[in-house]
Design brief:
about 45% strand; about 15% helix; 6-stranded antiparallel beta sheet; Immunoglobulin-like; 4 helices
Length: about 290
């Protein structure tokens, strides 16, 4: 009887051991990839975005991503999607075949104001996916805009309209009046035989030659070049706007046509846009609109 009880006890223990081992073997292994956002500083003055944040509209931000496969199969794809209002846009879609992934990616914020959901999805060859997201709340940060519309300027030979413009006074000046205050003159208009319709800084060599103003002091070297916005985008600029810095050192634009938009930066560091509206039929004239920092 004792022997039978002993055997039954052994069977019971063996059954418990077998059940325990079976339970452990049946536990599913999580093969979902691991993905994390990098935090902290990317470079002096620039931090990684790794969670919900408020940023200016029409700017950029940087996201650092690390990922690791947990299935034994390579990672094959990273997709980044932006959801703003009712629009879902795939911003980034990269295919590769690596066991791990490490990248720093730069993305643009929305031009509109509100909450923009950014979704990051990494996938391996077995279809296992990991997804992370955060919200970028876009805010408007810009300059107050000064507007002067319907400005008519004449070339060097026009007797009705002056050729020189001062953004500080929002006025057009004839040569004699401009000569009395050269320090306020930001740009001039003339129509040349080879340059055709031209807007240029007082310091531009063609302006000095055409108007014979080499004796002026100072000759302001306003930076002027074609802008990368359309006339419609110029018209849409409201009470506030983030004006870009002028990237180069160009001080003259020739061959102007209707709807051309120029960007400029004065010697005082004020930036803005000039839009060409028309060239009045009689005489060598130009009609422009101007929007700039106050």
């Amino acid at each position: 009887m004792k022997k039978l009880s002993y055997l039954l006890g052994l069977l019971l223990v063996a059954g418990l051991i077998f059940t325990s081992c079976s339970d452990e073997e049946d536990d599913p292994i999580d093969e979902t990839p691991t993905m994390n956002f990098k935090g902290g500083e990317f470079s002096p003055g620039v931090d990684y975005v790794d969670g919900d944040i408020a940023l200016p509209a029409n700017t950029t931000f940087i996201v650092g991503i690390t990922a690791q496969s947990n299935s034994g199969k390579d990672l094959i794809n990273l997709e980044v999607t932006s959801k703003f209002e009712n629009d879902n846009t795939v911003i980034y879609d990269s295919t590769f075949s690596e066991n791990s992934f490490d990248a720093n990616l730069v993305f643009p914020t929305s031009a509109g104001l509100g909450d923009e959901v950014w979704i990051f999805t990494i996938e391996d060859k077995d279809g296992n996916k990991k997804q992370l997201s955060f919200i970028v709340t876009t805010e408007f940060v810009g300059d107050s805009v000064k507007v002067n519309l319907n400005i008519t300027m004449g070339s060097y030979n026009d007797l009705d309209f002056g050729s020189f413009y001062a953004t500080s006074t929002d006025m057009v000046y004839f040569k004699d009046d401009a000569a009395a205050n050269p320090d306020i003159i930001d740009f001039a208009f003339f129509k040349g035989n080879t340059t055709q319709n031209t807007i240029a800084a007082p310091a531009a060599q063609n302006v000095i030659t055409v108007f014979n103003i080499s004796s002026w002091f100072p000759l302001n070297n306003t930076e002027i070049e074609l802008a990368n916005i359309s006339s419609a985008e110029f018209d849409a600029i409201g009470d506030t706007y983030t004006f870009p810095n002028v990237p180069g050192a160009v001080n003259e634009v020739n061959g102007l046509e209707v709807d051309d938009v120029l960007m400029f930066e004065t010697v005082d560091g004020k930036t803005g846009f000039i839009k060409v509206n028309s060239f009045p039929a009689k005489g060598d004239k130009i009609n422009i609109d101007l929007k700039m920092q106050k």
